[in-house]
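Q: Given only this backbone (369 positions), what sequence would you predict?
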């Protein structure tokens, strides 16, 4: 093995690509595993890693798995040397259970078994079979943040402007949890979709809904691009083909007359060619159908955009109200703190406590009350 690893200077050795090195490692691995089963162990060590598991073989496998990525001869050579020394240790322990080699193996395994037992004792208990991870679905008792209050479409206003209200916020101070101080939400955008940042971390359901909305809008935008760049030109060509076939059919039927005489067939008019129209019965041109579909898609995107603007406006109004309440509550806390301080000064110094603070501003408790 030393001849394999000690190569001439300038030649790079990659142990994993050397067949002789691979054969030597596999032979050492198999020899160690064969000797591991021949060493007799006490019952507590023999069953410490599970029934039917040999602890010596387990540690040998871990060592080889840990060193499998080593490529430097400076690291590989000592590892192989330790493996060959371990062969003599295992051979001596298998031959004589009272030898020093056997005692060293049992001492090593006892220390590892104690460490394993401590690790298992500190490990959290396994989840039961009935464990149900927290769902990201909306709780049935959750109150909606936004409520649409715009009137339904009517003959006088077929496309009513969307309007949203926030009936359940801002919450009164008595319902605020934690420190009781109001936290102002932040208005943010995710690809033109407004939303409020209320808590950290961001709820999973909010991330999921925003991702779905962004993905759906992106697909609609891509569909509009495909209709404009590919479907409409193809439909125009299809309409031109139908118009040409219809014209040739009229020519064959003798329907093209000019001043009572047979005339040359006229070509497709430029305007008719541009619009892709034909007059075969009452059929609707292909290009018209595709343009109608693209218009519906664009109208859908426009309505969605107007809806998001209305939502953003309602959220902006909520932030304004939240800031106003936060300012009032802050002033109320300051007034209550001033009142507690004045009470304490009165208890400590009596009625003339104000003389100790000549620059003290008069209390505004009456105003805040």
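A: Predicted residues:
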């Amino acid at each position: 093995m030393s001849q394999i690893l000690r190569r001439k200077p300038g030649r790079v050795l990659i142990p994993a690509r050397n067949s002789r090195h691979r054969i030597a490692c596999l032979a050492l691995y198999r020899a160690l595993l064969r000797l591991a089963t021949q060493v007799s162990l006490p019952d507590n060590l023999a069953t410490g890693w599970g029934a039917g598991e040999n602890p010596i073989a387990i540690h040998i496998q871990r060592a080889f798995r840990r060193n499998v990525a080593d490529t430097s001869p400076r690291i590989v050579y000592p590892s192989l040397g330790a493996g060959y020394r371990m062969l003599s240790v295992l051979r001596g322990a298998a031959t004589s259970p009272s030898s020093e080699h056997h005692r060293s193996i049992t001492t090593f395994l006892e220390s590892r078994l104690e460490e394993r037992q401590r690790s298992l004792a500190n490990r959290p208990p396994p989840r039961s079979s009935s464990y149900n991870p927290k769902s990201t679905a909306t709780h049935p008792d959750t109150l909606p943040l936004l409520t649409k209050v715009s009137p339904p479409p009517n003959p006088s206003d077929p496309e009513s402007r969307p309007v949203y209200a926030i009936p359940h916020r801002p919450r009164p101070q008595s319902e605020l949890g934690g420190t009781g101080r109001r936290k102002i939400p932040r208005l943010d955008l995710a690809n033109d979709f407004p939303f409020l940042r209320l808590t950290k971390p961001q709820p999973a359901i909010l991330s999921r809904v925003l991702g779905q909305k962004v993905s759906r809008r992106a697909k609609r935008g891509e569909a509009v691009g495909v209709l404009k760049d590919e479907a409409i030109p193809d439909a125009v060509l299809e309409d031109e083909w139908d118009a040409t076939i219809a014209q040739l059919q009229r020519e064959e039927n003798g329907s093209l007359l000019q001043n009572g005489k047979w005339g040359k067939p006229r070509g497709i008019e430029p305007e008719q060619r541009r619009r892709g129209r034909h007059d075969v019965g009452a059929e609707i041109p292909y290009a018209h159908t595709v343009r109608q579909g693209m218009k519906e898609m664009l109208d859908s995107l426009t309505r969605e955009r107007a809806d998001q603007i209305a939502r953003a406006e309602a959220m902006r109004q909520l932030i304004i109200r939240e800031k106003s309440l936060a300012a009032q509550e802050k002033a109320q806390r300051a007034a209550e703190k001033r009142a507690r301080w004045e009470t304490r000064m009165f208890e400590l110094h009596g009625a003339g406590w104000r003389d100790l603070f000549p620059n003290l501003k008069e209390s505004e408790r009456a105003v805040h009350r």
